[in-house]
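Data deposition worksheet. Section B asks for the primary sequence of the deposited chain exactly as it was used as input, without tags or linkers unless they were present during the calculation. Section C holds the resulting structure in C-alpha cell form. Section D is free text for depositor observations; keep each observation to a single sentence. Incomplete worksheets are returned to the depositor.
Section A, Depositor: J.P.
Section B:
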Amino acid sequence: MTDAVKLTEKIVAFVKDYFEKNHLKGAVLGISGGKDSGVVAGIMCKALGPENVVGITLPCHSKDADAADAKLVAEKFGFELLNIDLTNTYDAFKGEIAKLGDFNDEELKNSDINIKPRLRMASVYYMAALLSATRGGTYIVPGTSNACELYVGYFTKGGDSVYDIAPIYSLSVDEVIKVGEVLGVPEKVLYRTPDDGISGLSDEDKMGVKYADIGKIIRGQEVDPIEREKIEVLHKKAAHKFNIPVFKIED
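Section C:
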C-alpha cells in the first residue's frame, strides 16, 4: 500500500499547491455517491480542509440510494453537503422540447441522458460563483473523471467534462480505488458498481467493455485482442471530444 500512500500524498500536494499559488479559497463538487466523486471529495478535504469544501447532491429522477451514499461521504470527511433537486428543472425543459415535435423515446434517449450532467454542471458552477461572492474567496470546481473513462470518452461534453482542476485525471479505476482506500472512503461507496445514475445500466454494461481492460491498455499491458479492439474503437470514436477544430487566419 506504500505506493498508494505516496500517490495520494502527491495528488494532495498538487491540489494544495495549485490553490495556494492561485490564492483560491475552496472547492465545490457534485457528490453522486460513486467512488470517483467520493475520492475527489476526500482529496480536496485533505488538501484544503473540510471547511473549504462544499458538496452538492443533484438528484434528477435519481435513486434515493445515491443521496444516502453521498451523505456517507460527507459524514466521513466532514464537509458541507447541499442539495439542489433538478427534477422539476429537467421536467420543465422536457416540456419545452415536447412543443418542438413528437419525438419517440429512442430518438430522445441520448439527448435525455446527456442533458442531466449538463444541468448538474451548470448548477455546480452557479454555486461556485455564489459561494465565491458570499464567502470571501474564490471557489472552483474539481473534475471527477478518471483515466479509464476519459480514454473511451465516457463523459458528456459540456457536462462532467467541464472543471477547473482534475485530481484523478491520470488514474485508472483500480488506482482510484487504492487512493480511496488510503483516504478511507466508505467501503459501500468505494466498491459500489459504477453507473451513471441515469440510464439504469452499469458503466461496463453501457460501454460493453471492462474498466480493468481499459486500465491495462492505458498502462501498456496485454489485453485480449477482441477486447482491445472494442476499446480502441470507443477511443477513436471519442476523439472529437478532445480535439476542437479551430480555424486560424494564416499570414
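Section D:
The CA atoms of residues 130 and 139 lie 9 Å apart.
The chain has a mean pLDDT of 94.
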